[in-house]
Write a structure and sequence with these properties.
The N and C termini lie far apart (67 Å). The protein has helices spanning 2-20, 77-80; strands spanning 35-38, 69-72. The chain has a domain at 27-80. Strands 1-2 form a two-stranded antiparallel ribbon. The chain has two helices and two strands. Helices cover 23% and strands 8% of the residues.
Length: 98
């Protein structure tokens, strides 16, 4: 009998915790106020997407890979020397005025 009550209590707690979680809890990239900036990440420090043969965060094997991004505040990418779209190459970024 105690086991049945414990399982019921656990199920209730899990259901309540799920209902209390915000509906917007999702991937970091989906968060408002974040922009993907390509070509500024150092090797192994990208947030995600480092091209074919990679899985996700931290998988870029070269500095400034044009197909790997870091998440930055909107409006700051270009001033850091990055691009808002993936690109070929891995030249060091050249910061520019926004």
């Amino acid at each position: 009998m105690k086991t049945v009550l414990s399982l019921a209590a656990a199920s209730t707690l899990i259901a309540l915790a799920g209902a209390a979680a915000p509906a917007s809890a999702g991937p970091k990239a989906a968060a408002a106020g974040i922009e993907k900036c390509y070509g500024i990440a150092l090797a192994g420090k990208n947030d995600c997407k480092a091209g074919a043969g990679t899985t996700c965060a931290g998988t870029s094997s070269v500095n400034y890979a044009g197909n790997a991004f870091k998440e930055v505040k909107p409006g700051t990418c270009l001033s850091l020397g990055g691009t808002l779209q993936p690109h070929d190459g891995h030249a060091a970024p050249k910061p520019r005025k926004a």
